[in-house]
Prior knowledge:
Blueprint: H1 9-23, H2 30-37, H3 41-48, H4 51-70, H5 81-96, H6 104-111, H7 117-143, H8 153-170, H9 176-188
Helix pairs in contact: 1-4, 1-6, 4-7, 5-9, 7-8, 8-9
Amino acid sequence: MPRKKQYNENEVLDRAMEVFWENGFEPTGVRYLERELGINQFSIYSSFKSKRDLFILSVRKYREHAEKNLFGGLINDESTILELRELLKVRIEEAGAGNRLGCFVVNTTGSLIARDDQIAEELKLYYDFIRNMLIKLLNNSVRKGLVDESTVIENTASYLLGVIQGLSVGVRIIPEDQLHAFIDTAFESILCNKY
């Protein structure tokens, strides 16, 4: 008869996401995961198959977290890039208050040493989600007269994706006033003059 697991896989996955977020994939060893997750190597392999699979599930969990919590308030037919600008400013304030981890996916993208197609695909799903959200926000903004109707939406969405990535890296070391200036300048280049 198989033994009953003495841990909650979802809670372990939440903690694994935090560990990978803080340390990255490559530097995080299985022994360190054992200690931080409170389960042994056998349990990690039994529930998650490998460190790599645990990491992929962690990236997926972060994307779900971002969709529901970080950007959930923007995923509707009324939100515009004005709300996005305010959300990014709040993130800058949170970083100033000590939350300087940045974005898990951006950190991961920049730190992977070897190319792994499955990890890359999971990371791409996150970027696709953000870009699609930006396209919707920009279309809403054009409809509401906040952004000029001649704007090339797809290109501007890619530009804003780069802005968000830059901010995610910048919050780790750049002073708040410079980050606010970065956001202001980026959005001024897109919004109609009165906004």
